[in-house]
């Protein structure tokens, strides 16, 4: 019988979303999540749990993508903007060969849309997910809704996620609690 594992998702924590010079930055509030995200990543590895890094990737020439025209060009393949922000870049380089650390390219808001994330989670007997990163009100929200609909238990840490606006972040956190039955620490 396999033992249930937990999965930490570090969503879109890249230079374009977090660094002051990023093309779609959330700025200081997102930067302030760095220590908590790294602490959780280390804790998950120490416990033998999984760390997934679903990361936005775009092609500037793809004018058929639904985000085309909605946002500035961001997270282009093989650019500084798509590199992980700050110490997460070093953490990933040090741990990328660990079988518990898995990076996933995603092209939509949800980490599940068009990826093999659900398959990877089920293969590893993961039933509980902790979502961190950016943006609380877009990519975390869409990922959380899909995760809920796939019967995953959800957990969040307020100091490990950031949204584009306080109003939207409040809405998303309330939605996590009241509609998706998530635990918020």
Describe this structure in words.
The protein is of the alpha/beta class and 185 residues long. It is built from 7 helices and 6 strands. It has a 6-stranded parallel beta sheet with strand order 3-2-1-4-5-6, sandwiched between helices. Strand 5 (153-162), helix 7 and strand 6 (183-184) form a beta-alpha-beta unit. The longest helix is centred in the last third of the chain and has 14 residues, at 136-149. It starts with a strand and ends with a strand.
**Taking all residues together, what is the mean pLDDT?**
94
Architecture in CATH?
3-Layer(aba) Sandwich
The main pleated sheet reads as:
6 strands, parallel
In which order are the strands of the major sheet placed?
A: 3-2-1-4-5-6
Unreliable segments of 5+ consecutive residues: none
CATH fold topology: Rossmann fold
Fourth-level CATH superfamily = Isochorismatase-like
CATH level-1 class: Alpha Beta
Structural class: alpha/beta
- Count of the domains: 1
Count every beta strand, where a strand is a DSSP E run of 2 or more residues.
6
The proportion of strand residues reads: 15-25%
- Distance separating the two termini: 30 Å
């Amino acid at each position: 019988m396999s033992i249930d594992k937990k999965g930490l998702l570090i969503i879109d924590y890249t230079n374009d979303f977090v660094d002051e010079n990023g093309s779609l930055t959330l700025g200081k509030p997102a930067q302030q999540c760095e220590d908590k995200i790294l602490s959780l990543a280390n804790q998950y590895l120490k416990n033998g749990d999984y760390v997934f890094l679903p990361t936005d990737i775009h092609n500037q020439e793809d004018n058929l993508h639904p985000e085309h025209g909605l946002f500035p060009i961001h997270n282009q393949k093989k650019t500084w903007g798509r590199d992980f922000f700050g110490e997460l870049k070093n953490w990933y380089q040090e741990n990328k060969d660990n079988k518990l650390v898995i990076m996933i390219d995603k092209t939509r808001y949800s980490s599940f849309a068009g990826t093999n994330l659900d398959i990877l989670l089920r293969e590893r007997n993961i039933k509980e997910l902790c979502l961190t990163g950016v943006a609380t009100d877009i990519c975390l929200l869409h990922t959380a809704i899909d995760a809920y609909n796939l019967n995953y238990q959800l957990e969040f840490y307020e100091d490990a996620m950031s949204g584009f606006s306080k109003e939207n972040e409040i809405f998303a956190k309330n939605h996590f609690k009241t509609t998706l039955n998530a635990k918020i620490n």
